[in-house]
Tryptophan halogenase family protein
Amino acid sequence: MQNSKVKNIVIVGGGTAGWMTAASLAHNLKIDGLKISLIESEEIGTVGVGEATIPSIRSFNDSLGIDEVEFLQKTQASFKLGIEFRDWRELGSSFFHPFADYGIDLAGIPFHHHLNRLRSTGQNVDIADFSFPTQLAKQNRFAQPHPNPPSPLADYGYAYHFDAGRYALFLRNYAEQRGVVRIEGKIEHIEQNDNGDVATLTTESGQSVSGELFIDCSGFRGLLIEQTLATGYDDWRHWLPCDRAIAVQSEMGGEITPYTRTTAKDSGWQWRIPLQHRTGNGYVYASDFCTPDRAEKTLLDGLDGAPITEPRKFEFVTGKRKNIWNKNVFAIGLSGGFLEPLESTSISLIQTGISKLLNFFPYHGINEWDQAEVNRQHSHEFERIRDFLILHYKATKRDDSPFWRHCQSMEIPETLQLKMALFENRGHVMMLEPEAFERDSWVTMYCGYEKYAADYDRRADTISDNELNAQLEKMKQSIASAASQPLSHSEFIRRHCAAPKPD
């Protein structure tokens, strides 16, 4: 146990992770005499491609009292109802992962079991017909959900696409207004105490910054958590083989869609993230199956607008830090681990890292039991998201390239094996609580890949065929009618939150 009280917090690294952390700590910690410093260098670039989010970003902004319209305008943001998956099951296929449940549970039985029952009789039913945000997305429409929806069918979430660099600047202004001190410069020397704790950081200009708690937001390199403390890393590339990415911004092409698009390619997948003023694009691929030159050509050939930046290339190792809290260093963001942005979890993992820090903040000194619980939660969270991402690759029917044949044949974690087997045999969605992705997200993937269950919960038979079909038709028509009424996504932005032309 480290008995010294925390009076000086030092955050290493800016970008999205650093400034989200600084803003949240400045807002939430009411400790007399507490000083929060953030060290960053303008010469060290940030990854800055995490521009798509999941609905938890709204609760984060709300917790800081951030006005949504101001945020949308300052970050050139658009809205996100979910993710479209093109060519993942097979070439020419498409399905949508919404931020919502499907239909309404009937007779206390999860909704998807009733659809499985109908499929068992030969009826062709599309689960997408029972998702309001999916139907909105198909028509490029957007509406904010009612705070007290009249029906469970109208209850859904939304997230954002935004300019990550502008978001970091927005939060920097927020944090500095609340007393966070920004220090410019590269860290040249790290001094440790006899017990191994980090004590003082010295910048190249000679400025020394001491603290009792250090937050590592230095990105992939993990300056403190790994380069200094040698914490260790779990490499998951044998399950998630993509280890390279190339990103480029392009002019707007077509409509500002209210969703992220991911398109499976021969050695990975390409993202499309529409903002108000441009589109973010990238290709995540496996270097064992694709050269950098071919990856760049694949990306540029797949754009729907002219590129406006030079392509940026990244290398990464999918996996997690063995511990995110080691001695007096707490890792948040990429320094704590990296799971490819297939389901837009990068920024949400920053949020959950901040939440763990706040929940176990060492007001009276660092306690080994607090550290152990934080690290356990960290491992559990990463492993559950890991399994969900692996499913995207393992479930494919594609055999048109060596990469996809590898994904079909690769070994997967036992936890995912069990989940897939339980659903395949009886339609049961096993949840290892807590999980970042809820039951119907897993149902989306199983149905999107046509991994339908062989059986269903027989308690669904308590509803007659006629009654079940009548209720499903009523749900379907209600959703279709409601989805045809809102404004287009572009028009909604123009009326309510259009940003000034960028500088």
